[in-house]
């Protein structure tokens, strides 16, 4: 378990999270994330052998429902907040992804 | 002018003593006079509200019996409102106008409420002070150099300063209860699943819950009855029938068993301030005087709730906030330095659009979910979450509610904890376990420090037993005068 974080570790996590960090943020997060992880490491001393994980506290009711068609947003409404929408063709525009 | 209650406003409109428009105009007069130094609101919806109030006045017979007829309501700015800007106090959503209403918004309006604005909060509800707002901090009406708590700080300020008798907030780790405690009002986090989360901008989906902030316990009971209930749009909303919460307020606590985790509260683990501890002890004495019994409960894993919370909440947040990429809604960064490929634009959009605390949590959450660390952090945290739930299950074999201070300290100064995120997180020691276990929990005012800052008592109940939590809190409230006190700058126009 790493006690602190190196700059290159921070950069690797930022890349996974699609976050472009500046130099100051890389140094700050290296220190702060290291501090936080050191603190949460106290969990390692708890014996959790055979303890099931809790992902959700929802119990006792059926989350499944019939797959019925219902009205959805109008296309114009769904596109209305797009920074670069193309409502005439009903698409979101992004920069070129294929060379 | 004293702080209005939901029931007072509603009854005045019902009886024709005041029109909905008069009530609404009065709310905006207060907001105009009081909000500039406090910054409770990100957006005020004056014209929309006045139109709606006029529509209610024009069709009185239709609205007469509705439980919130004419009642002004402030909504935390992470609850979607059709046609009204919803920012989550983030640059990345600064100009986002939702095309739909959250279920709670639709239910409030169907009950006759009039939405007066969207309240300031920590960005994406991540924080305990409302300092992480992209639009500047909110201030505590009891002491403007202090925070109102957070993340639903603006909602707490709006109610405490008399700008609205009801506000909704969201609570992922204490974000309704702690600002309610800091501002001297009532705040209720319902059982997970009791209130639909449809239209709440998600932070940590297994922990988030919407609830009311009000001046009195009776108003919280009334508001919960309006917003609670199953919703086909939220698969985690619960089918259990909604109780008549107002009818449960009998004032009778004889025989009620109140659990006190004394090892946690006065054993030094929670770092409880001496004045907070004194107020908490006196509150317990008052309940005993009315016939309740105190029972020591153990909650052996409660001291691990903060590390568990900050692993689970950040993991879920890193996943939930992946949707903010500048494509479908929100801010998009311009191409820069010749780097206009999609991936660079995603990363730059998120760098410019998110503030430091949101980035910190996305980073932590991404790390704990990443290959090689998942079992050690995320899985481990989920297992300890199970142990925390079991602790409560055992405690509720013995008691009806668990009592703790809501916050170990009163409101802290603006700027005091900004540089040390871990210090900020430790203040959530008494609130996060209710979210991890999914239980209902409420703050009710229980005193003031010698410096005049509010102190709050937290009561946590069994699954879907909001009725008992509300009954005991209401009985306590009727024994005290704390809730009648108002901050100085809300007494005059």
Q: Summary?
A:
Chain A is mainly α. Chain A has helices at residues 7-16, 23-40, 75-79; strands spanning 85-86, 91-92.
Tag the structure with descriptive keywords.
heterodimer, A: 99 residues, mainly alpha, Histone, subunit A, two-stranded antiparallel ribbon, B: 493 residues, alpha/beta, Amidase signature (AS) enzymes, eleven-stranded mixed β-sheet, 17 helices, 11 strands, globular
Describe this structure as you would to a colleague:
The complex is a heterodimer of chains A (99) and B (493). With 99 residues, chain A is mainly α. Chain A is built from three helices and two strands. In chain A, 33% of the residues lie in helices and 4% in strands. A two-stranded antiparallel sheet of chain A has the order 1-2. Chain A has a domain at 7-45: Histone, subunit A. The model of chain A has no long low-confidence stretch (mean pLDDT 90). In chain A, α1 packs across α2 (23-40). Chain A has helices at 7-16, 23-40, 75-79; strands at 85-86, 91-92. Chain B is α/β, with parallel strands linked by helices and 493 residues long. Chain B has a domain at 6-250 and 476-490: Alpha-Beta Complex (Amidase signature (AS) enzymes). Chain B has an eleven-stranded mixed sheet, sandwiched between helices. In chain B, α2 (20-38) packs antiparallel against α3, α6 runs parallel beside α7 and α11 (305-320) crosses α13. The interface between A and B is large, with 51 and 69 residues.
